[in-house]
Amino acid sequence: MIDARLPAAEAVESHVRAFFAGHSVEVVDHDLGPGRREVVPALRVLVVGPGPRSDSWAYVTAGCWAAMEKDGHGPEFVMTAHARDRRFIELMAMIAYYHCGGHRLDVEHSMPIGEPWVPGSTCDHLLISLPYLHGPDLEHCPVPGGHARILWALPVTAAEIEFRRHHGHEALEWLFDQAEIIPTDPFRASVA
Q: Hey, where are the domains in the chain?
């Protein structure tokens, strides 16, 4: 099975490099450690520097689709951030493990981080959404034997997650639009 996983991760990497043409892209092989590496054995985190498409950093998983695809479909994840930091690589590995370890993240799902996104931030959850900052050209990624969707892992507050539970995902996204949040700002005010 490992033979099928590597081409899928490579296809995600090629897709990300093509989408972010003109940006630096570093491939970080992330070993989740004993007892966890089997869950996402081909995990890589692609670290995309600022460039013509975006002045922020992007971190993209490559390996989730290969570990969890169903009928040729499955997600990968992107997070945008204000800086290059090992912390964000580790968060992407956490997302991959959480997803592939049995939680199966998809649009409108969320996951607790267990601590602030960065020290001092009130964002301590991730909301899985469409990759609005990058659009459908990044979202739709062909891979051998199927198609991956690259979904956005947006750092949000516990209050925003609670608001979404009571009012729905679209209502929360409407609040984000009204507040004109800067999603890469770890110190942004909560909209709920």
A: 2-179
